[in-house]
Amino acid sequence: MRTGKRLRMGNIFRGDGRTVVVAMDHGLFGPWPGIEKPGETIEKLVKGRPDAIMTNLGIITQFADELSALPAVIWTVPSDGSALAYIEQAAKLGVDAVKVSIFGPHDLQKYSIFGPISVECERWGMPLVVEPVPMKEEKYDNDPKEVAKVARMGAEFGADFLKVAYTGSAESFREVVKVCPVPVTIMGGVKMETEKDALEVVKGSVDSGGAGVMFGRNIWQHRNPTAMVRAISKIVHEDATVEQAMKELK
Hints:
Layout: H1 3-12, E1 19-23, H2 38-48, E2 52-55, H3 57-62, H4 64-67, E3 72-76, H5 84-93, E4 97-103, H6 108-111, H7 114-124, E5 128-133, E6 135-136, E7 139-140, H8 144-156, E8 161-164, H9 170-178, E9 184-187, H10 195-207, E10 212-215, H11 217-220, H12 225-238, H13 242-246
Parallel strand pairs: 1-2, 1-10, 2-3, 3-4, 4-5, 5-8, 8-9, 9-10
Antiparallel strand pairs: 6-7
Helix pairs in contact: 2-12, 5-7, 8-9, 9-10, 10-12
């Protein structure tokens, strides 16, 4: 791994090899509750000390001062051939990684778009996050075999780390982690019913060898985003139990 990638990956992942990333790129689909005022949301998140925020170009440029308080920033770029044009700009912006996504069943031809993007990222020393999301009847498909397939495909095409769906149990998620030669983080997906549900998912993923989380709605739609970041970080970075992490939310 070239120097630029090593330095940037070191900003995203702590010495324990894990990370807590707040996904805040949902604004492309409108002003979601919780991120209507991005600057205020970022300030709350920063107080919880996440390892990174993942967001879009407009937020990065408009709120660079607030984001500069974080160890790392990840830029979500288009998930098509146009992504190649963004990698050089990402390096100039000073972000620490770019993220691309594909939604749908595993398809070698469809996933091959990651190959050229990975080559360009290697050229600029820019870590690449791949988010492969299998879908079934317009819903996330967290079947362990499907998640493992798309995760491995992302790694094979050059992802430096992955953002995937949690498969529902520590035992099944362990099978996903086992077949991936790069760090595997989990997405939050839809807002979970309770904060305890969210923390149990976090705990199951790290107990399986996962490298942390890239959560959005389950953090910034919480009544106290600052505390939720701290609770998640306690599990990810301190191997706390769910009960210990829940104390951060009181």
